[in-house]
């Protein structure tokens, strides 16, 4: 795994503005911007500054759901904007109704040692440390099964998302942007826990048809084994707020990913069920 040698603030300051949707949508294929990711661990994640953060993996035999706060417990009003109180949590829910703090930069961004379809050393190469390590393991397993994957877009700062969203509205229209992109502060990419993934035949094309390709099918079947979920499921648009995105992987940890995937749930559904179970 390649450690990021600049701190988060320097990354944002040096960021060259990209032109694409909130999740690298299909119609803006050639306009992908680059960023730089982070590294995972087994029980704790060690950031480049030496600090450690606990993972959300539960004790053996215990459901990770029992460890999680409900959605209502992790939101507060900040100047009229519903803002999450747990931005560093692996289970953080960021969507059109739940924003990250505008100044949030993940503390442990690194670059995973996986193939990218571009050479630029830019921000979207980054993920949080634990997620980056898990992505390396997922890519290695896919390769063993004859599946060639490319990482397309990971971490995205508030500043970059603002530029992307404005560009998408201007070029694709507000309605299309609302379906595929996120307003600044409400993109999962800012968490450092998401990565858009493509196959060798479509290195920068992110389309719904990816879900029917060998690469997309392999991811749907195996991503939970490495702690990832397909974040935006088909038929769950009313819950997630986004159209089906079979290319968008979100890291939540192995146990939670397995439970969510086995039940066919979204992250919102899973944590809403947490609140019900705790009553």
From TrEMBL:
<dbReference type="InterPro" id="IPR058193">
    <property type="entry name" value="VanY/YodJ_core_dom"/>
</dbReference>
<dbReference type="GO" id="GO:0006508">
    <property type="term" value="P:proteolysis"/>
</dbReference>
<dbReference type="Pfam" id="PF02557">
    <property type="entry name" value="VanY"/>
</dbReference>
<keyword id="KW-0732">Signal</keyword>
<dbReference type="InterPro" id="IPR052179">
    <property type="entry name" value="DD-CPase-like"/>
</dbReference>
<dbReference type="InterPro" id="IPR009045">
    <property type="entry name" value="Zn_M74/Hedgehog-like"/>
</dbReference>
<feature type="domain" description="D-alanyl-D-alanine carboxypeptidase-like core">
    <location>
        <begin position="125"/>
        <end position="254"/>
    </location>
</feature>
<feature type="region of interest" description="Disordered">
    <location>
        <begin position="28"/>
        <end position="68"/>
    </location>
</feature>
<feature type="signal peptide">
    <location>
        <begin position="1"/>
        <end position="25"/>
    </location>
</feature>
<keyword id="KW-0121">Carboxypeptidase</keyword>
<dbReference type="InterPro" id="IPR003709">
    <property type="entry name" value="VanY-like_core_dom"/>
</dbReference>
<keyword id="KW-0378">Hydrolase</keyword>
<protein>
    <submittedName>
        <fullName>D-alanyl-D-alanine carboxypeptidase family protein</fullName>
    </submittedName>
</protein>
<feature type="compositionally biased region" description="Polar residues">
    <location>
        <begin position="35"/>
        <end position="58"/>
    </location>
</feature>
<keyword id="KW-0645">Protease</keyword>
<dbReference type="GO" id="GO:0004180">
    <property type="term" value="F:carboxypeptidase activity"/>
</dbReference>
């Amino acid at each position: 795994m390649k450690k990021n040698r600049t701190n988060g603030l320097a990354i944002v300051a040096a960021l060259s503005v990209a032109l694409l949707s909130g999740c690298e949508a299909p119609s803006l294929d050639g306009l992908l911007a680059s960023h730089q990711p982070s590294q995972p661990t087994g029980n704790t994640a060690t950031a480049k500054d030496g600090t450690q953060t606990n993972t959300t993996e539960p004790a053996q035999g215990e459901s990770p759901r029992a460890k999680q706060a409900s959605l209502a417990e992790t939101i507060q009003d900040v100047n009229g904007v519903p803002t999450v109180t747990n931005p560093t949590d692996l289970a953080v829910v960021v969507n059109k109704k739940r924003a990250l703090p505008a100044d949030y930069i993940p503390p442990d961004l690194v670059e995973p040692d996986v193939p990218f379809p571009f050479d630029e050393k830019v921000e979207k190469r980054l993920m949080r440390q634990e997620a980056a390590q898990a992505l390396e393991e997922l890519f290695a397993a896919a390769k063993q099964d004859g599946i060639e994957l490319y990482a397309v877009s990971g971490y995205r700062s508030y500043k970059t998302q603002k530029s992307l969203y404005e560009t998408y509205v201007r070029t694709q229209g507000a309605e299309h942007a609302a379906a595929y992109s996120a307003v600044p502060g409400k993109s999962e990419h800012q968490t450092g826990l998401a990565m858009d993934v493509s196959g060798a035949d479509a290195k920068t094309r992110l389309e719904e048809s990816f879900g029917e390709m060998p690469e997309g099918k392999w991811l749907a079947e195996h991503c939970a084994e490495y702690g990832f979920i397909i974040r935006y499921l088909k038929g769950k648009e009313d819950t997630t707020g986004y159209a089906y995105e079979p290319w968008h992987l979100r890291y939540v940890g192995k146990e939670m990913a397995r439970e969510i995937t086995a039940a066919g749930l979204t992250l919102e559904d899973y944590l809403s069920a947490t609140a019900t179970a705790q009553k």
